[in-house]
Every structure is written in structure tokens, then in C-alpha cells.
Amino acid sequence: MKYRRLGKTELKVSVVGVGTWQFGGEWGKSYTQDEVDRILGTAKEMGINLIDTAECYGDHLSESFIGKSIQRERQDWIIATKFGHQFHGHMNRTNHWSPEEVQKQLEDSLRALRTDYIDIYQFHSGSDASFDQDDLWTMLDKQVQAGKIRHLGISIGDNDNLHQTESATKVKADVIQVVYNRLDRKPEEQVFPSCQRQDLGVLARVPLASGLLSGKYRPGVVFQQNDVRNRLQKVELTKKLQMVEEIRRKEVPEGVEMAQWALAWCLKHPAVTCVIPGCKDVEQVMSNAKAADWVSDDHPQAWKA
Q: Keyword annotations for this protein (predicted)?
């Protein structure tokens, strides 16, 4: 595994993390505690130290799985979770952005995670109107001062949301999370340059394009009814998979797994600190972690011992 400095947080994070939306049951599979234990146990063995989750991946369900799994080794992990939504059922959420509601979400997340602090607490894909609340950020800053949050972050919903990115330093956020992958390069235009100017850590979510860059799917694939990818329109899905086939032929070196190539591709950008792919099982964790083998040591954020 390789490690990088997460912007001004100075945290030392593995270049590959673990995304955990799947633990909430919206990716075509329900999980048991034993399965989560094995996934996170393997991740640790592979050198991964960052877990990304959210309060609305299930009703704190993903957080609860994680909390039980790592409670005896909490100090070994960097936990990034999010706030702003409440889970009511499969792909059914409501937004909750008031300072009082968010403070309750924070306390609920701390209980679910079985911890007294969260390393990175992220504004979760909200509108600019929800973001532009001085009272919200004042409350969150007080939680940082109280030691319940180590660092604030912003998970932007739109890949070109420059308003929230540019406001990061103002609201004392140190980390930006954004969708970035070989099929979606929009952040390169404005968001990444802003992150670099502000010395923000960058977590790249959906680095495998919801699995489309894993190399497992071909045009014509049909996802299960309860799989979040079922939301993709057939025409859109077909177009993306055709792009994947072209990328496979022209860009992926012979003998390299496409998923590992796709993760390493994201990590080449000088703004990106860590990719946070989801993983359904132990084998996927191991494959994701091996992407570090294709990552250069001369990246601007490479950790210098």
C-alpha cells in the first residue's frame, strides 16, 4: 500500500480506501456483521486505513456495521462519514440541514460508529442554499473544538460545484469528496485546481463508475431491481459500456486488471489523494488494494516519512 498526505489535515491516508454505501443494502445485496468484519479485516491486512460511509447508507446501518467491526482498533482507522439526509427506505431519503438536525445526526453517527470522534465529517451533496448557512458551520466548528470532529469536509453533489469548493476554507473544511473516474473527468476543469490552491485533500468517489470500469460488464447487462445501478437509463448505460470497451482496447495495458488500472488512473491526477471504491466481498477489497502497485511514488501528495 502507498500513503498520501490528505491536504492540510496532515492525515496519512492509504491511496485506496473503502466505500461502504453497499453495506446499507442498496446495491443488490444485504450484509451480515460477519461479512463486514471479513471485508474490513482484509482491508486492514492490505494496508487500507480509510473508510467512507454516511448516515443514510441504511438508517445508520453501514455506520453500525463499521462501528462493531473496528471498535477494538478504532485508532488504526480514519473514518469519514456524512450528514444531511435521513434514510426511510430503498433510495428514499429526506433532507435535514438545520444546525439542530445535523447535531442530532452527529450524535447518532457517533453512537452507531461506537466512537467519541469522527475523523472527517462531510456535508453530503446538498444544495448551495443548504450549504450557505453560517449557523450550520458555526455549530460544526464548535463540535470540532469539542473534539467530536477532527476535520470537516464537503462531498459535492455536482462535479462542477465551484461555489462549495471555493468556500471550503471559509467554512473551515479541509477535504473535498467528488465523483471522478475515467468516464467522468469534469472535476479536472475547475474543482481540482481550486482544491490544489486551498491545499484540500481530495477523496474520489465512484472511481470505477459504479462498477462499469471493473471490466465485468458488457453492453446489454441488466442489473437487479434492487440495485442502485438499475436507475441508469438503458441508452445511457449502453453508451457508457461502449466507452468502457473502447478504453479497454486502447488504454488498459495488457496483463493489467481493468479495475486496478481505473483506480490507478484516478490517482495519477496531482489533486487526488485517495480513491474510495465500494467492494462487495473480500476478493474485491484485495483487487482494489493492489491498484496501489500501479501508483507512482512521485505524486505531489506522496507521504514522506
A: Oxidoreductase
CATH number 3.40.50.720 is the correct assignment for the domain at 3-215+256-294: no
CA distance 286 to 190: 33
Instruction: Burial-class residue 243 by CB neighbours within 10 Å (0-12, 13-18, 19+).
Output: middle
Fill in the amino acid letter for 143.
Q
Residues near 14 by beta carbon (within 8 Å), at least 6 away in sequence: 1, 2, 3, 47, 48, 49, 50, 274, 292
pLDDT in tens, 147-160: 999 999 999 999 99
Q: What residue segments make up the domains of the chain, in order of their start?
A: 3-215+256-294
Distance CA 89, CA 120 (A): 26
Q: Cell for 257?
A: 486488471
Cell (9 digits) for 140: 460544526
The x, y and z cell numbers of residue 110, run together, are 457517533
* pLDDT at residue number 66: 97
Global pTM value: 0.92
pLDDT in tens, 231-285: 666 767 778 888 989 999 999 999 899 999 999 999 999 999 999 999 999 999 9
Rounded to an integer, what distance in angstroms lies between the CA atom of residue 110 and that of residue 81?
A: 10
Phi and psi at 65, nearest 5°, equal -55, -45
DSSP state of 167: T
Beta carbons within 8 Å of 239's beta carbon, 6+ residues apart: none
- Separation of alpha carbons 138 and 152, rounded Å: 12
